[in-house]
Design goal:
3-stranded mixed sheet, single chain, 19 helices, 504 residues, globular, mainly alpha
Length: 504
């Protein structure tokens, strides 16, 4: 039973007739995945504030804790993420520096620890395989789709990345049969307290656990299930606030047939949900554009490759969960994807925004993980995979490593041009940030907003060049003027770099 934390027998370390060759192959794949993460991390200093940060942090300076309580009760029932962003804004106001990349780096480290450390510590799989699974998943979450809004925007990152991390941690512990009730309760609490998507996920997970307890009273540890009272109580409170939150009415957005209509939104969500299950999309989708046929075709192939790679890896390292334990997590992940699509149709009238699309596509990767774990259980029993069958074990390891390499290579081909532009433009980005803050903190009522290269790898909201005045157009520009106490702001065009050669 997962709740009892019974660990399966420890599989032997990867081996073959040529252990040095196979060990080298593991090292190569691990280095490739680490390189993907390193490249994505290297451009963190290019992260910038958007209008939300300028507006939010100006309110912190003017209203303090009263603003935080107003946000929690009337705008964003996200206890964890709102408190963290409030602390960050207070610090930024005190030191008069944005600290954006430092905040994001710490958030990444926190989320990585939540997602992977429990699995790395408790899994019975050999250490090389545990590391490969964790590092590969971290890299895969950054590939196959735009990542700017989820990974490089402070307000968006702190709301959605902890939910993804908590879900990943739960799934890894679940499939490795090491999920304790205490860990389950803490991870669910983090998800529930981070964003509305986390509320959907947490409440669906807890609902499925409730059905499990009703259907299996003899096997469900009712005495120790008191741990689940913590996320249940927090989830009910946050969900209640969310339902009565004025934002749920979607006021201020253009009317569409789904805007403000629950049934129409739920019906409209079905086709985008199915497409999200199968697709991977390298193109920008923040304006509500749909998946292309190419995105669906490549997504089916890539997710099939990923399923095969993880299935082979799980078969070798002994991850073979009972099939019945995978149904509840699968329904929680799928239900969250569906409800976030419906919520976008209801609140906005269209599919918004990039961070939501990225979040759902990464949830589809977790569904791939569950599918691979189920296939591992089925195929291991059918073919009687054992630790003594060295030839078959070696073949499975080679297939797993080749599949992971193929996925990373294919998706990095999509990302490489954007990353190259971002890396080449880092000096321009840092200079632009320094000029913005020097101009904003200078004396006088005018300032100049210098834009960087605006590489799609980390940033896609370009401010329209021109001169703006207080009380005029441009919400984000008005927020920046308010934050710096200016009445006139001159927005310069984004800096340009020589075009890079197209990726073949």
């Amino acid at each position: 039973m997962a709740e009892a934390c019974v660990k399966p027998p420890r599989s032997p370390a990867p081996r073959s007739a040529g252990p040095n060759i196979l060990g080298t192959a593991y090292g190569v794949v691990l280095c490739v995945m680490l390189s993907v993460i390193a490249l994505q991390t290297a451009i963190l200093p290019a992260s910038v504030w958007q209008g939300d940060e300028y507006d939010y942090f100006a309110n912190i300076r003017e209203h303090g804790l009263a603003f935080l309580s107003d946000r929690l009760l009337h705008w964003s029932p996200r206890p964890f993420s709102e408190i963290v962003i409030f602390a960050y804004g207070t610090l930024a106001n005190a030191v008069h520096k944005p600290l954006a990349w430092i905040f994001l780096a710490l958030t990444w480290l926190f989320c990585a620890a939540i997602a992977f450390v429990p699995f790395l510590r408790r899994s019975a799989a050999p250490i090389p395989m545990r590391l490969l699974i964790a590092v590969s998943l971290a890299a895969i979450f950054m590939l196959g789709h735009p990542s700017a809004d989820l990974f490089y925007w402070p307000m968006g990152t702190i709301a959605h990345l902890p939910v993804l991390a908590a879900a990943c941690g739960l799934i890894l512990l679940k499939i490795s049969n090491t999920l304790s009730l205490r860990a389950e309760a803490l991870l669910l609490t983090l998800a529930l307290a981070s964003s509305e998507a986390g509320v959907f996920f947490g409440m669906l997970w807890l609902g499925m656990r409730g059905f499990e307890s009703l259907g299996g009273r003899r096997t469900f540890p009712l005495g120790r299930s008191r741990w689940l009272l913590l996320p249940t109580g927090i989830g009910l409170c946050v969900f209640t606030v969310m339902i009565f939150n004025h934002r749920m009415g979607g006021s201020g957005f253009p009317f569409t047939p789904t805007h403000g209509h629950i049934r129409a939104s739920l019906a409209a969500a079905f086709r985008p949900f199915l497409k999200t299950l199968f697709a991977l999309q390298p193109d920008e989708m923040s304006s509500g554009s749909l998946f292309t046929r190419k995105a669906l075709a490549s997504g089916v192939v890539l997710k099939a490759i990923l399923t095969g790679a993880f299935t082979a890896l799980f078969m070798v390292c002994g991850i073979r969960p009972a099939l019945r334990t995978l149904m509840a997590p699968a329904l929680a992940l799928s239900g969250t994807m569906y409800l976030t699509i419906a919520a976008a149709f209801y609140a906005f009238g269209f599919l918004c925004c990039q961070r939501h699309e990225t979040f759902r596509l990464d949830f589809s990767i977790l569904l791939v993980l569950l599918l691979a774990a189920g296939l591992s259980t089925i195929l291991s029993a059918k073919f009687r995979i054992s630790s003594d069958d060295r030839k078959r074990e070696t073949t499975l390891q080679i297939c797993a490593l080749a599949g992971l390499l193929l996925f990373a290579g294919w998706t990095m081909r999509w990302r490489l041009s954007d990353l190259s532009l971002a890396l080449a433009g880092l000096p321009l980005e840092e200079a632009a940030h320094d000029r913005v803050w020097a101009s904003g903190l200078s004396a006088g009522t005018e300032m100049t907003y210098t834009q960087g290269t605006a590489s799609p790898a980390f940033y896609y909201w370009r401010w329209e060049p021109g001169t703006y005045h207080v009380g005029g157009s441009g919400w984000e520009v008005q927020s920046a003027m308010r934050y710096f106490g200016k009445t006139t702001l001159h927005v310069l065009p984004p800096a340009s770099l020589p075009p890079l050669p197209a990726v073949p």
